[in-house]
Amino acid sequence: MSIRLVICILVVSLFFNSIKAQDFTELDSIAGHLIKDYGIKGIAMVGVKNGEVIYSKGIGYANENHKLDTSTPLYIASNTKAFIGLAMVQLIAEGKINLDDRLIDYIDKKYFPEELTVELITIKDVISHSHGLSNDPITFRTSSSGEYPDDLRELLKFTEYYPAGDSLVKKHRYSNLGYLLLGMVVENITGLSWKEYLVKHVLSPLKMNNTSPYMPEGALADKMAAPYNFKSATPLKLVKKDNTMHAAGGLITTMDDMGTWLNFLTSEPDNSSVNGVNINPYFKMLTKTDDSLGPLKIHGYGYGWYFGSFFDQPFNFHTGGFSGHASLMSYMPELKTGFFIFINEQSRLFRSALQLVLLYYSIIMDHPGKAKVNEMFSSMSRDIYQNYKPEELIEVDPNLQTIPTGTFVSEKYGTLKIIKKNLKYHLYLGLNLHSIAFRGPHNNSWKAQFVPGTIENFYLESEGGTDKIRFGDDFGYFIFEKR
């Protein structure tokens, strides 16, 4: 063997060993601190660079019986939008749809309130959250209660401008509605539900075989990361079911599959096509935004990604969160590196996860600003931990307060059932949600916690001798259903 060949082999070997030997001791240490000192139950992290996984670690517990590992099912909520965005890029590349097409070319205007000028909204507006619309009933029912018609378009009659009562304002405002609309558009174009399309045309080609728009079953369900709050030793109730896995937040994945996903995002030219379809526009923003948090800047949004910079290097990311399932996926295209993190925490301590994300990139960049970033986020976490005060909920005493029982119906929010059992009032909303009734500020009001961390208010009113229940301040009424 020639000396030149030996030197070449040594150089290549040293290069790859240097990648694998990246020192993430500080990342391990801070993650361990969050677990130990702040009571966070579990943290899952994956980092890739130059086409390989260089960091993969599960710390703490997925649930009461299982530790987090690379095969733990993780609900990634709104990170689903990046996969819907990829589906849209594919359909555009295939000539089946254009960014400048009108939304009503794919969802008939008749489904929207007549007074809305939805004919002015383009597909680009919808993808970039710049459609100017709001529809709380459809987002709540598809994400939480699970009670909705087979044809979701029937709920579009509750769509309104945002702000309510205003005219159409095409300004970037993040919400779930746009990507629910895109799920309908995908079905209109392909004849497949958004779930079927993603499995066949996105997840399978990317070999993300452990990522699914359906809740896990059997042994996998037993391993799934459960929602927690650092103030509670036991898991919070799991709200997610197949009927609330929606196009704006409906994917289960694993650390292993997130490694595959990040490698795809950072491996040029391998990321230029999926299933033989050119997807280069996927990596470009569609609308401008302006926000910042220390050295992290946000410049725009497109196809399910925020486009920004970290220490002046391009940094693209998206977050997902729902009742104890919080995650962030990100990549830095010029450095060909990416990082994913999941934390099963309900409170605002998810800010700590962002600290770990930025620490990972600071280590990769060997940036001198690392210590300052760490201190900024450590201070945030301490403040959140020390000042966190969940609302005190006291159950309604049926000897002191009477709540009407029976079935009540809202055109917007579906079915509310109230029963009195074992000296407690039980509220059931839709197919999924249940809560004990808790005291409200007045004798004719009460509260419910259908989704951990979220308080809903109800008020009893009467009209013409008929009880009706006001939902929140402006969500409308549930009317007693006569039998």
Estimate the mean pLDDT confidence. 93
Number of domains: 2
Strand order of the largest sheet: 18-17-16-15-23-22-21-20-19
The helix content, as a percent range, equals 25-40%
Strand content: 25-35%
Largest sheet: 9 strands, antiparallel
CATH class bucket of the largest domain = Alpha Beta
The number of strands is 23
- What is the approximate shape? globular
The radius of gyration computed from the alpha-carbon positions, rounded to a whole number of angstroms, is 24 Å
CATH level-4 homologous superfamily of the largest domain: DD-peptidase/beta-lactamase superfamily
Please tally the helical runs, counting DSSP H or I stretches of 4 or more residues.
11
CATH topology descriptor of the largest domain = Beta-lactamase
Q: Point out poorly predicted stretches.
A: 1-20
Structural class computed from helices and strand pairing: alpha+beta
Name of the CATH architecture of the largest domain: 3-Layer(aba) Sandwich
N- and C-termini, Cα separation: 91 Å
